[in-house]
Design brief:
It is built from 17 helices and 14 strands. It is of the alpha/beta class. Among the domains are: 44 residues, no CATH class; 257 residues, Enolase-like C-terminal domain (TIM Barrel), CATH 3.20.20. 53% of the residues are buried.
Length: 458
């Protein structure tokens, strides 16, 4: 069933005041909501919530937490309304998120998709990641019902395409023999041409610069982020320099050690970053006070995805002054509404805004594009793991969304603008069931290659 924009509003059980109070639907929709009829509001009521945990192949990329396991976990949420509208969402995987979504599913039945803000209070108040999947599915359903793109539902896009950054990881080759022996692997990956990917091992500055060049050739990236906290800091500094040199110093670079450096190491490396086209220095240390000290002693632009990650972190950040750039993420900043609020607060505080990424598939990629297109203050290229997703593992119909010239266009269809590939979704769920992975554990995988590995500080 496809509804016109006015039909959707006529079906809603919300008042105009309620929609306006939500602060998220566009003003034009709120005005039309003044004439809403309650006669058929049940057509936009939630009839069913389908929760599908999936596992998608993950290459052996390295971070401060260790080595990514053979699969990364995500959760697909589908909401079916009484009127036959189906909205889709994607969020983090893991047992806690899946359990909370399944527990909440029955309580959501009968509620309107237009009242998704209420669902963040009950029954999903304690799990922001679970709420993010539900909110996204509701917004997708509203978009499909009205024929509007998601970005139009939240006030309209302020840009037609978004810029994304290369996310560069040190890594082992996909066919490393010790990693191929992992008993959790349940697909047909193997050696040589049967390897999960052909990017090879990247464990030196020279290899990292070559990876950055190959990513640029394939995707057109003009901003390059190095995931650090893996090799000795001086080696990672040399890698960032090699990346910059490969592009003649004309491309911006970032570095993120994920809090694995001591304050003194972070200050020393930070001072050595002077002269590079550094866009920001992300989380070299843990905690607001340590970040603030590094910021004072280096005078570098600091960014975080660790010490300012929810609205409650902002008040102490005003006191401590640890950052210049904040990374939005609708999975834990309170969904799209929370990220729009974050943008306004960041502008008032003099912070710039970018977008955080974790491993994800195309549903989340589409959501990230809509979000970056909708937040006026989000002017810095978004992070994305998307290039690391194996093409054959993508769960949206038509294959992966394109990255061209380092940019991505807003999907043109209603809602998110993407559809699920049912066969691939079923296969990804089957992998989840068979592989036995239920939570992320990078340390275990790392110890397969480096026995005794521990996450100590550099």
């Amino acid at each position: 069933m496809r509804l016109s924009r006015r039909d959707c509003l006529n079906l809603s059980g919300l008042t105009a005041g309620a929609i306006t109070a939500s602060g998220l639907l566009a003003p034009a929709l709120a005005q039309e909501a003044a004439t809403i009829s309650r006669r058929r509001s049940s057509d936009l009521a939630i009839k069913e919530v389908i929760v599908t945990p999936i596992a998608l192949p993950d290459p052996p990329i390295l971070a401060a937490s260790g080595c990514h396991g053979p699969y990364f976990l995500r959760t697909i949420v589908e909401i079916v309304t009484e009127g036959g509208i189906r909205g889709i969402g994607e969020t983090h995987g893991g047992e806690d998120t899946v359990r909370d979504l399944r527990r909440a599913a029955q309580a959501l039945v009968g509620q309107s998709v237009l009242a998704y803000r209420r669902l963040g209070v009950q029954p999903l108040a304690r799990n922001a990641r679970a709420y993010a999947g539900i909110e996204l599915a509701c917004l997708d359903a509203i978009g499909r019902a009205t024929g509007l793109r998601l970005c139009e539902l939240v006030g309209g896009p302020v840009r037609d395409e978004i810029e994304v950054a290369a996310y560069l990881f040190f890594r082992y080759a996909a066919d490393h023999p010790k990693l191929l022996a992992d008993k959790r692997i349940v697909d047909s990956r193997g050696r040589g041409e049967q390897a999960l990917d052909q990017w090879g091992e990247v464990r030196t500055p020279e290899a990292m610069a070559e990876l950055a060049w190959q990513f640029h050739q394939r995707f057109g990236f003009r901003v390059h982020k190095l995931k650090a906290g893996v090799l000795p800091p001086e080696t990672e500094l040399a890698a960032l320099r090699a990346i910059s040199d490969r592009f003649g110093g004309k491309h911006q670079v970032r570095i993120d050690p994920n809090g694995r450096w001591t304050t003194e190491t972070a200050v020393s490396i930070g001072r050595s970053l002077k002269g590079l086209p550094l866009e920001y220095y992300e989380d070299p240390v843990r905690g607001q006070e340590a970040m603030a000290e590094v910021r004072r002693r280096t005078d570098l632009a600091m960014s975080t995805n660790m010490c300012v990650v929810e609205l409650d972190d902002i008040a102490p950040a005003i006191r401590n002054q640890p950052i210049d750039v904040v990374l939005a993420d609708h999975h834990y900043w309170g969904g799209f509404a929370g990220c729009l609020t974050l943008g306004q607060m960041a502008e008032a505080l003099g912070w710039k805004v970018s977008q955080h990424s974790n491993n994800h598939a195309g549903v989340t990629m589409a959501a990230m594009i809509h979000l970056a297109a909708s937040v006026p203050q989000l002017t810095i290229a978004s992070d994305t793991h998307y290039p690391w997703l194996v093409e054959s593992a993508e769960i949206i119909a038509g294959g992966k969304l394109p990255i061209t010239g380092g940019k991505m266009e807003i999907p043109s269809g209603a809602g998110l603008g993407v559809e699920l590939d049912r066969d691939r979704l079923a296969r990804a769920h089957e992998m989840y069931e068979k592989c036995g992975m239920r939570d992320r554990d990078d340390a275990t995988t790392m110890r397969m290659v480096e026995p005794g590995w521990e996450r100590t500080l550099f």
